[in-house]
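## Example record

The block below lists the input lines for one assembly entry, exactly as stored, with component labels intact.
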Amino acid sequence: MSEMTHEHEIGPITVTDVTGQKTFVASKIPSQATIDEVVKYLLATMQQPAQDPEGRPLTYGVRSEREGRYLGGNERVGDSLQADDTLRLMPTVDAGRGAGG
Amino acid sequence: MAGLPYRLLAVLSSEAGIPIGEYPITPDWHPATESARFLALRQSKSLVGPERIVPVWDADGAPHLSGVQAVVCNGDGRDIPCDIPLAYFKSQVQSVSSRCIEEGKLKVGETFHYRIAAFACSAEEAADGPGQPQGWHVQQVPSSPLCGERPLKSFLGSSRLIGGSEETGDYPVFIPLSVLQQAEALKEEANVNETGGILIGYLWRDTESPEVFAEVTALVPALHTIAQSTRLTFTPATWDAVRAAILLRNREEVFLAWHHTHPSRFWCTCGPELQRHCPLGQQFFSSDDKSVHRTVFSLGFHTALVTGDRPLPDGGWEIVHALYGWRSGIIEPRGFYLLD
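Predicted structure tokens for the full assembly:
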């Protein structure tokens, strides 16, 4: 007798940027994926920068609208997300004179 | 996701024409395609379709580019091209030149020439970024940024153009005097530190033409930032607070622009005699500012208001406002209409 593990998939999940003017729908996300893995893929798909001008990684907070909290990068999709959830990607960004002034 | 099915090389040569090297570059096409999509929105009331990037060869023909075109197909099946100049690749070329300096092929401050060469390849080969993980599916939800229709001429009749000129073809942005006064008050309150906020309002379609324009209605001060003299950090809590303010106002306003200050009078150490020529007294949009704009305000209609300082002949300083926005995929200084 062989054993088989069925990995659940989560979706659809609505994902928006800060402004709410760029909205995507993600589906069939493996429940074992981490929030960090989901964000990494979403950033590329949404054409959101992953690095600042100096090449340092940009930090994005992932806010679950249903739970009203920011999700941790190591949380598993299966533990944190439900179908029809809305996530908002909120970056930490630096403006100002910086190096370019 | 539109891209150019070509491998791109930055071809650098010295001022005397001696080859320095050829370096692969992978441009960020998002600003180009968003500029094209916004141009299409301004030119047609029909739905905006998918976009593509096509090469524009220079006078010598392939493989060298004089630029590219971002082309959007509108709902009538008509292609609307947006010309993207060679300057679009400048930041990538600057990165390459830094590498050349590290390798000893260029000296700091040395002038060089560059061309961009393009060689056909498969879309997969040209793609930058991870492929879609097996089974996952992510799709953009089509939506219009427009809030409704208003007569543009009534706004033009009660405003005056500040900075820029109509020849640039920039879409009209209307900012009330009260918002600029609030920006100045925030700057003075922050004193030596930078401060900022988000400009909210409406994106309207003209009732008599396809033209689109922005009406700024309020400046929401940025809370939960980390403010220093030369840096202002917007955090996730900042964005949360702005969204909460929009919901509380309950007027269906949208994000139009962002604002921050450059307290140049505190940066300048030139002394009264030389401060008129201090580069920090010029208005500018730093590489960090561009990064914020690209990360959060990447749609074609998004703009950025900078409230800075300008030296006066008498040794004092005055507060000045400058607006920046997307033009052909590049962030440029632009004008705005001051609403009385």
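Chain B has a mean pLDDT of 92. Residues 284 and 306 of chain B are 8 Å apart (CA to CA).
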